[in-house]
Write a structure and sequence with these properties.
The structure holds two protein chains of two kinds. Chain A is mainly α. Chain A has two domains: 53 residues, no CATH class; 209 residues, MetI-like fold, CATH 1.10.3720.10. The longest helix of chain A has 36 residues. Chain B has two domains: 42 residues, no CATH class; 229 residues, MetI-like fold (Orthogonal Bundle). Helix content of chain B is 76%, strand content 1%. Chain B has a two-stranded antiparallel ribbon with strand order 1-2. Chain B starts with 5 loop residues before the first helix and ends with a helix. The relative contact order of chain B is 0.12. Classes of the chains: A mainly alpha, B mainly alpha.
């Protein structure tokens, strides 16, 4: 291949990449555009491709009527459940790796819990939460997301912990550190990147959940995906609100991808490679 | 504690320690995973409906009903077709994308960042987005088709029977192809470079190299990716819910949506539990069969 050929090939690939990126980005652009359009622009035919001005009125109205609160609910439930699941999941994974607790069976049983479709367990969980009187509370959703994410955390952290050389821990033990101190001062710092990657995904799963929140919330702790579906009507939908609230739900994810892309890429590929 | 016993104490402490570490996680999973599962089976043998909370055991009546319920089997058929159509498309497109980004390309980080965005957003938002895109009058898709057609086009993407599934499929493929792409990209970049070079020197064709070297190398990872996605597709709920709610009629009803409908709209709780149990049974069989095959191929 001569130089010109190579250059042409590269340009062809860049061109393809741009097309692909457009395909994946355009729908999100459209969603964002809707959220800034005036009512006239939303219902104009032919459609308006670029809103005339950045009009934040739909966002303001979400804050005014309290709908934006649903984003806060998502944030609270997703972050607290992530912290709890990361903590209990990581120590459980350590126990599985270093002590072979329960052998292979326990590990496989744990990951198999992840396989059960939410729709299959959500009703019994609902009955349980009714009995405990925690339907439509933060507690309910946090417990549920924690339980739902634990198998994932354990599975992923198990992979990361397996990579730590045993000698490090042994020498720390010889130096007189307690088991607990070894876990905190030797193991945790070694798996920091893994912890972070796993936490990002745990957060994303909880943040994006719809079905659990739909059934286990009424009015107090409605999360943003549930709120978004509330704007769809049989005859007409409140497109401006759908657009603006969806964007509020997407913005944190854009931020996450922008700042932690490395961890996300690693998390996704690790999940399958270690699987 | 006497000093003579300290060694035994230490051992005891160790034993306690490992259970101490794993107990909270197992407890939570048992509570929210196993308890509901058992409860589900119990309920499926009772007859709890909106009007009746009959707690006595009714035997297999709900399981017998499963076989006569055409709407259920239709929803299962929808789900299966949806899965076996979407899965290969995602795999194929993901593979093409992975090939595109395997070699060096400028701004790779930026491209990959943009491409993976759909995968991390809420399926509800993805559904809402595509509902906007496919809107018959105000959506850009009909508009673009109109440009090519040269006249106004009013395709009813959320009503027309032959259009409604493709619309959902596009949303699903858009959201999850990036997932396949990232996994395949990682798998492809782990393929042994020396082997590839050796094959090139030997003058092997692209197809031969792919079949003999690349495919076997990425097979295990690809298999897991297909399994993960296949299970996700089989329980698809959110994206269909936002785009069509299973409609028009029951045209796009998947098995998850049907189970939801029976439990929370008809309040036919016990029957819904039987459906849920059937779903779990089907998935378990699929997973066991898949894992067997994987063991064999290893």
């Amino acid at each position: 291949m001569n130089k010109w050929d190579q250059g042409a090939r590269l340009w062809a690939r860049v061109f393809c990449a741009v097309l692909v990126a457009l395909f994946f980005a355009f729908p999100i652009y459209w969603l964002g555009a809707i959220s800034f359009k005036t009512a006239d622009e939303i219902f104009a035919y032919p459609p308006v491709w670029v809103p005339a001005s950045f009009d934040f009125q739909h966002y303001f109205s979400l804050f005014k009527d309290g709908a934006a609160w649903s984003v806060w609910n998502s944030l609270v439930t997703a972050s607290i459940s992530t912290l709890i699941a990361m903590f209990f999941g990581t120590i459980a994974a350590y126990s599985l790796v270093r002590y072979k607790t329960g052998g292979n069976h326990l590990a496989i049983w744990i990951i198999s819990q992840r396989m059960i479709p939410p729709i299959c367990v959500v009703f019994p969980v609902f009955l349980l939460f009714v009995a405990w009187d925690i339907v439509d509370t933060y507690y309910g959703l946090i417990i549920l997301y924690t339980a739902f994410n634990l198998p994932y955390v354990i599975w992923m952290m198990r992979g990361y912990i397996q990579e730590i050389p045993l000698e490090l821990e042994q020498s720390a033990l010889v130096d007189g550190l307690s088991r607990w101190a070894v876990l905190w001062k030797v193991v945790m710092p070694m798996v920091k990147a893994g912890l972070f990657a796993t936490a990002v995904f745990t957060f994303i799963f909880a943040w994006n959940d719809f079905l659990f929140a739909l059934i286990l919330s009424r009015s107090d702790v409605v999360t943003f995906p549930v709120k978004v579906t509330g704007y769809f009507g049989a005859q007409s939908s409140l497109w401006s609100k759908v657009g603006a609230l969806s964007m509020l739900g997407v913005l944190p994810m854009i931020f996450v991808v922008g700042t932690m892309q490395r961890f996300i890429v690693r998390g996704i590929s690790m999940g399958a490679v270690k699987g | 504690m006497t000093t003579s016993n300290s060694f035994a104490d230490k051992l005891d402490q160790e034993r306690w320690f490992k259970y101490f570490l794993i107990a909270p996680a197992v407890f939570i999973i048992l509570l929210i995973g196993l308890y509901p599962f058992v409860k589900l089976i119990v309920v499926s043998f009772q007859n709890i409906t909106m009007f009746d909370d009959e707690l006595s055991y009714q035997g297999f009546i709900h399981y017998e009903r499963l076989f006569e319920d055409d709407r259920l089997w239709e929803s299962i058929l929808h789900t299966v077709i949806f899965t076996i159509v979407a899965l290969p498309i995602e795999l194929f497109l993901g593979f093409l994308l992975a090939l595109l980004f395997l070699e060096r390309i400028p701004y790779k980080q930026v491209f990959v960042g943009i491409i993976l965005l759909p995968t991390v957003i809420s399926p509800i938002v993805a559904g809402a987005t595509w509902r906007l895109m496919f809107d018959q009058r105000f959506g850009p898709i009909n508009q673009v088709i109109a440009w090519f057609a040269g006249h106004e086009v009013k395709l009813l993407w959320n009503i027309e029977p032959i259009l409604v599934w493709p619309a959902i499929m596009v949303a699903e493929v858009w959201q999850w192809t990036p997932f396949m792409f990232l996994i395949l990209l990682a798998a492809l970049s782990n393929v042994d470079k020396e082997q590839l070079e050796a094959a090139q020197i030997d003058g092997a064709s692209w197809w031969m190299t792919f079949r003999k070297i690349v495919l076997p190398a990425i097979m295990p990872v690809m298999f897991i990716a297909l399994l993960i996605r296949g299970l996700d597709l089989f329980r698809v709920f959110d994206v269909v819910w936002t785009m069509t709610k299973g409609g028009p009629g029951t045209m796009t009803e998947t098995v998850s949506i049907y189970a939801y409908h029976m439990a929370f709209r008809e309040f036919d709780v016990s029957y819904s539990a039987a459906i849920a149990f059937l779903i779990i049974l089907i998935l378990t069989v699929i997973v066991i069969a898949a894992l067997r095959r994987m063991e064999v191929s290893r």
